[in-house]
Amino acid sequence: MSAADLAGPADLQLALQRLLLTTEWNAALSRALLCTLLAWAVWRCWKFTVYPMLHPDEPKELPYLVPVLGHGPAFFKDSNGLLARARQYFSGINEPFALTVFGRTFYVVTHAKHSAEVYKHTEALSFEECIQTLMRFNGSDEEAIQRIYSPAAIDKPGFPNPKGLSVGVLVQLIHVKQLHPGDNMLSMQTQARDWINRKLSLDALAKECKLSTSPRPGRIEVPLYEWTSDYFVCLGQHLYFGDVLDRVDPQYPDAYVVFDELIWKMLYQYPKFLCRDLTAPRDQMIASLERYYQLPPDQRRDQAAWMINAIEDEIRAIGVDDANLAIVVFHLYFAINTNARKTSFWMLTYLLRNPEYMAAFRAETAPAFRGNDLVDVTHIHDPAKCPTVDAIWHETLRVTGWAASVRVVTRDVVVGGKLMRQGNRVMVPHRLLHFDETIFGKDPASWNPRRWLDTDAGRKLPSSPAWRPFGGGRTKCSGRFLAKYAVTAFVATLLRRFDIEAVGNPPMPEPDVGRPVLGIISVKEGYDYQVAITERKDKGVDV
Ligand code: HEM
């Protein structure tokens, strides 16, 4: 008998055993798969068929396949794309719907009428809860948050508080007193005007702007997005802190721009170890603000805006320390700075591609100047005197406003006829409202200021509930007047003094649609472009 003959039955036995084992495995695997499939089918049937039938009063949910993920991946990739698809899916029903993102439920409100209801329910739909979430993310301690958001005494000294509101809510009212039309706002406008007059010259650009190059005398080139970012952050910082914060930390505006481009990680609440690139500049800025508040008052307060001092007084009076005060004020820093820098970029980008509007902008704003200096702070702001500028402002915000108002549901509430459950979030995506053809007319994706000018309906659009670049209700952006003034005054002065053109033939910059923002969309990396700025040759219309 050969060795092969001897091995034969043993091999056969082994092979049989393996086959058996494999068959058992396969059977077990098939059973597991079948059970999973069955469980999945039951879950899906319950979630998207039975539950909605039992609870017709709740918003219908956009179906998804994987329970833990929900629409998470699609939301992260392009939230506005997902929302547009969802609206299309529910197009027949004209009511709020629900989306699940990594286990968290958002109720999405896409109709202007229902969005007005969201802004009215200030108690049940809380903005303050959202701010507190940001404060925690940025390092505020619980005790400080409790102090800031507990009702304060009616008869306390300082900012009047007849309704016994919390200091957190008083901060919103202090903003309004500083930033709504009135003496405080006028003094800020004048300060902004003087700063722009001083800082917008070829000399100042060559000396102070590290981004500028000068290929020949009388011509400066800058990357537009980086430049408007740097310029507006420095302006915002100057309006709030004078030159003092700059002396404490000369790198503050640079750190801010790095932080601001990554702000989506904060909005998505990234775990710390995944967002060191965001937390490093943030920690630097908060530490610098703390050092600012440790300076003796006589070395900083007379240069600061009224509001910055008033907020400091309120926060200190309730026993909050410098570190937590710095975090509160850090949030005010990004409120003033995150959007104006981007709006000026997009506005100039559209004007460069639409020379007829650039000419109209120059002509309408000319009476605000004496020589090359901006003197009149009211003219540019006035829609009756500058209707095209006004329409350009509205249209630029309409197409680039990419934010959503988000509120936490603090108790069950009905919006748009649907019950919204405590603990979930409500979202009003501004972009979907702004791209509603039935309100803003044909071809909503194109930049066309005439839609605000040509018809009666168009001229009424600024008061439409579908027009929401600044959110709405009690927390509607208090900086909207200053934002319009600063952006249009900057563009007007630039156009008054200089010719500006794109270098080469850059493509239309693409918006960075995948990343959420607090207002205006960012530019996709790699789409910034150079512009050349030269002394103006043709002063025909305005001398
Ligand atoms: C084009 C520029 C701007 C846009 C598009 C914009 C947009 C917004 C949006 C969408 C909100 C949230 C409102 C809500 O959800 O109800 C907001 C809030 C706010 N914005 Fe603006 N903003 C701009 C400029 C500014 C400026 C220049 C300042 C300050 C000078 C500012 C200060 C604030 C403040 C303080 C809040 C919070 C309101 C509160 O707590 O009551 N914003 N802004």
Automatic annotation (TrEMBL):
<keyword id="KW-0560">Oxidoreductase</keyword>
<feature type="binding site" description="axial binding residue">
    <location>
        <position position="477"/>
    </location>
    <ligand>
        <name>heme</name>
    </ligand>
</feature>
<dbReference type="GO" id="GO:0005506">
    <property type="term" value="F:iron ion binding"/>
</dbReference>
<dbReference type="InterPro" id="IPR050529">
    <property type="entry name" value="CYP450_sterol_14alpha_dmase"/>
</dbReference>
<dbReference type="InterPro" id="IPR036396">
    <property type="entry name" value="Cyt_P450_sf"/>
</dbReference>
<dbReference type="InterPro" id="IPR001128">
    <property type="entry name" value="Cyt_P450"/>
</dbReference>
<dbReference type="Pfam" id="PF00067">
    <property type="entry name" value="p450"/>
</dbReference>
<dbReference type="GO" id="GO:0008395">
    <property type="term" value="F:steroid hydroxylase activity"/>
</dbReference>
<keyword id="KW-0503">Monooxygenase</keyword>
<dbReference type="GO" id="GO:0020037">
    <property type="term" value="F:heme binding"/>
</dbReference>
<comment type="similarity">
    <text>Belongs to the cytochrome P450 family.</text>
</comment>
<keyword id="KW-0349">Heme</keyword>
<dbReference type="InterPro" id="IPR002403">
    <property type="entry name" value="Cyt_P450_E_grp-IV"/>
</dbReference>
<keyword id="KW-0408">Iron</keyword>
<keyword id="KW-0479">Metal-binding</keyword>
<dbReference type="GO" id="GO:0016705">
    <property type="term" value="F:oxidoreductase activity, acting on paired donors, with incorporation or reduction of molecular oxygen"/>
</dbReference>
<protein>
    <submittedName>
        <fullName>Cytochrome P450</fullName>
    </submittedName>
</protein>
